[in-house]
Structures are given as C-alpha cells and as structure tokens.
Amino acid sequence: MTNGTEGLTIDELAARCGVTVRTVRFYGTKGLLPPPVIGPRRVGRYGREHLARLELIEELQSRGMTLAAIERYLGQLPPDLSVRDLAIQRAVVASWAPSTVETVSRGELERRAGRALGEEDLKRLAAMDVVERDGEAPGSFLVDTGLLRLGVELLDVPLSHETILAARTALTEHSRTAAHELSRLLRDAVADKDTRDVRSLSARMQPLVVQALLTTFQRSLKEELREWLDEEG
C-alpha cells in the first residue's frame, strides 16, 4: 500500500470522498470509474486512480454539471491520464468557481490528504498556497480544498522547499502578466457593451481560458523538457 491510498475497499473509498457506497457503485455501472482490482476472497480493491477520478467527478457535480455532461467531459480526456493529471484536471475545474478555503483540524487535514503530514510536508504545501496555519485557531489549518489533492501528489516530487518557492514566484508573475493582457483584450472588445453582458461573458470565458492556459503550458513545458533532455543526452 502507498500512502494509504492503495488497496481501499469500496467502503473506504466512499468514506475518503464523502460519498455513499451506492454512489461509487453507480459511477462504476455508468463507466465513470474503472472496475476495482479483485483481490483475495474476491474483494474489490480501489487505488489512487479511482480516488483521483472519483474526486474529479464530485468536483464536476459540485459545479452543477449533469451526469451526461460529466460523461462527455471524462470521455474527452485521454484514457491514460495519471493520478497527477487527474488532480490537475480537478484543480482546473475548481478554479471555475471562487476559492473554496476551509478551516480544518490537523486530523481532518490528514484524513483528506490520505496520509500523515510532517512539518516538512506542511511547509511544502504552504509554499504551494495549498495550506496555511490558522493564526486565530491554533492547531487548525486553512486549506484550499480544490488544490489539496494535487498538492499532496506533488509532495512525492523530489524538489526542495526553496525550488518550490521559486517555481511559485515564477508562475505567479507570469500568470499575472497573462491575466493582465487577457483582461485588457477583453475590456477593449466589450468596451461599448452593458456591464451585465460583460459579467456574463467573463463567467463563460473563465473555464475556457483556464483550460487553454493549462493546455498551452503543458505543451510548452513538454517541449522545454524534451530540448533539455536532448541536450543532456
């Protein structure tokens, strides 16, 4: 078992995501979740991919998507997405709505993370703007629930705390520049329109823009890494 997320029973998987066993089985019959691995005594076991996919489905539902729309959304994703890719997808979906920050105890944070979190883990999550200690309630944490699963996955990436901070700074600066330019273009395009029309257009554009930025960044990063590896080789 890895970090407590391999070999989950259906009851454990449902509890981890805060849904019923019946819901998990229903998603399975609809093909939204892959079948479990059948272990000893013919007990189905669920792993990290099931957990990440179930969390993505629940995130999509919380944004008001119908089951048919969720089926179409998942059907458009590559079939071989990794757990980390699914977590990124969930983070993108979560960004369509205002930030969802909750105050939780250390125990609840670890339950949602699916693993024990040491002080170094908490520092790394804080560096990623996923977790922050609640100054008004000692022992509690402010958690961006939309980014938590992705942040936990990144804990296993061998990067130092300093590197994560530098990466966050670079991403923040470039993201703000891109957001400023896109905002200017949108403002110029709708300069003579009613304020309500502008807000409606902005709400519809946001998920499209976020998905476009994610896709563009992933492709650019892949090209940069390929060039770097070619040079190293």
Give a quick summary of the entry.
This protein is mainly alpha-helical and 233 residues long.
Shape: globular
Major beta-sheet overview:
3 strands, antiparallel
The overall pLDDT, averaged over residues, is 80
What is the helix/strand order? Answer: HHEEHHHEHHEEHHH
| Intertermini distance | 35 Å
Beta-strand proportion: 5-15%
Number of helices: 10
Give the domain tally: 3
Task: Give the key terms.
single chain; 233 residues; mainly alpha; Multidrug-efflux Transporter Regulator, Chain: A, Domain 2; 3 domains; three-stranded antiparallel β-sheet; two-stranded antiparallel sheet; 63% helix; 7% strand; globular
Describe this protein's structure:
The protein is mainly α and 233 residues long. The protein folds into three domains: 10-78, Multidrug-efflux Transporter Regulator, Chain: A, Domain 2 (Orthogonal Bundle), CATH 1.10.1660; 101-154, no CATH class; 161-232. Helix content is 63%, strand content 7%. The chain is built from ten helices and five strands; from the N terminus they run ααββαααβααββααα. The strands form two sheets. Strands 3-5-4 form a three-stranded antiparallel β-sheet. Strand 4 (131-133) and strand 5 (140-144) form a beta hairpin. The chain is globular. The model has no long low-confidence stretch (mean pLDDT 80).
What is this structure's SSE topology?
Elements: H1 10-17, H2 21-29, E1 37-38, E2 44-45, H3 48-62, H4 67-75, H5 83-94, E3 101-105, H6 106-113, H7 119-127, E4 131-133, E5 140-144, H8 145-154, H9 161-189, H10 195-232
Antiparallel strand pairs: 1-2, 3-5, 4-5
Helix pairs in contact: 1-2, 3-5, 5-8, 7-9
